[in-house]
């Protein structure tokens, strides 16, 4: 399957403003690119790439004063298969976890595990450890929170999502991650593209999406408490402890996002030169 994805973002800055951008696809997906993924700026911008502490491909810029538009469009190969389901995947004992995974057991800015631990053990303590426990958490979160763009709040934590029972995909994800961590299951936040492929089109503009990965049976498996079913065509951009680590932009000074457009859709394969030539001479 060929997927076309990209974005057009415009930022307004009253003065030159340093920014960190997490707008490239994850290095693990770069091998699947069918066209180049180049971040374009509509005016001269000093930019350089770097890899952050979570292995994400990021960009440092200094946005000039005024309006700056950042954009990209690319095609990427996707298997067309739905997210993997591994119902027999086991939960590791903490002593058996790799060192680099331990950070994803800890509370973080938006995943306030200290406020959810008692509830988590009361609600999920009798579930079978492993895949079934993570799925039980996703089922709960999916049914507990109502998706509502009008209720989006960038300051809402996992406990806030639990209390408010409304929000957007990041709220579903933060709550599920926090509950997993309370149950000693490493969980990390994911952001990326997820188009309406294999499902009815959603009745609102395309956006970047949030989901999470749980560490089971030595592998990071994808879970999506908002949709709560395996999906086709996820394009991972970044992973981290929570939304703080994978924000599409972090400004060190005032900036205002004035334009936000995201596209993710199945694309037709480009015709080969031979087929184009043959069609031109067909009767």
Give a concise summary.
The chain has 283 residues and is of the alpha+beta class. The protein has helices at residues 117-124, 131-144, 158-164, 169-182, 273-280; strands at residues 2-13, 17-21, 40-41, 46-51, 57-63, 66-77, 146-147, 166-167, 187-193, 209-216, 219-223, 235-240, 249-251, 256-267.
Notes on the structure:
With 283 residues, the chain is α+β, with helices and mostly antiparallel strands. The protein folds into two domains: 2-79 and 247-268, Immunoglobulin-like (Sandwich); 94-231, C8orf32 fold (Roll). Helices cover 18% and strands 31% of the residues. It contains five helices and 14 strands. The chain has helices at residues 117-124, 131-144, 158-164, 169-182, 273-280; strands spanning 2-13, 17-21, 40-41, 46-51, 57-63, 66-77, 146-147, 166-167, 187-193, 209-216, 219-223, 235-240, 249-251, 256-267. Strands 3-6-1-14 form a four-stranded antiparallel β-sheet, with no helix packed on it. A four-stranded antiparallel β-sheet has the order 4-5-2-13, with no helix packed on it. Helix 2 (131-144) crosses helix 4 and helix 3 (158-164) crosses helix 4. The protein starts with a strand and ends with a helix.
């Amino acid at each position: 399957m060929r997927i076309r994805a990209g974005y057009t973002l415009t930022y307004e800055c009253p003065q030159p403003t340093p920014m960190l951008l997490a707008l490239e696809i994850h290095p693990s997906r770069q091998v699947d690119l069918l066209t180049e993924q180049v971040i374009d700026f509509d005016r001269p911008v000093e930019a350089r790439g770097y890899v952050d502490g979570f292995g994400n491909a990021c960009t440092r810029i200094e946005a000039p004063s005024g309006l700056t538009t950042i954009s990209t469009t690319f095609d990427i190969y996707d298997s067309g298969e739905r997210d993997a389901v591994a119902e027999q995947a086991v939960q590791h004992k903490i002593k058996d976890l790799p060192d680099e995974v331990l950070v994803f057991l800890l509370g973080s800015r938006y995943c306030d595990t200290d406020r959810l631990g008692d509830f988590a053990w009361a609600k999920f303590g009798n579930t079978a450890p492993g895949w079934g426990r993570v799925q039980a958490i996703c089922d709960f979160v999916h049914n507990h929170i109502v998706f509502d763009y009008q209720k989006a709040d960038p300051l809402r934590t996992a406990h806030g999502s639990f209390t408010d029972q409304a929000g957007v995909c990041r709220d579903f994800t933060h709550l599920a991650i926090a509950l997993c961590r309370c149950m000693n299951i490493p969980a990390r936040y994911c952001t990326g593209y997820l188009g309406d492929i294999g499902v009815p089109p959603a009745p609102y503009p395309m956006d970047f999406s949030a989901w999470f990965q749980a560490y089971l049976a030595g592998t990071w498996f994808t879970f999506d408490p908002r949709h709560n079913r395996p999906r086709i065509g996820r394009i991972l951009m970044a992973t981290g402890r929570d939304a703080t680590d994978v924000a599409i932009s972090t400004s060190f000074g005032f900036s205002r996002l004035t334009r936000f457009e995201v596209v993710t859709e199945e694309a037709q394969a480009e015709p080969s030169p031979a087929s184009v030539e043959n069609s031109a001479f067909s009767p």
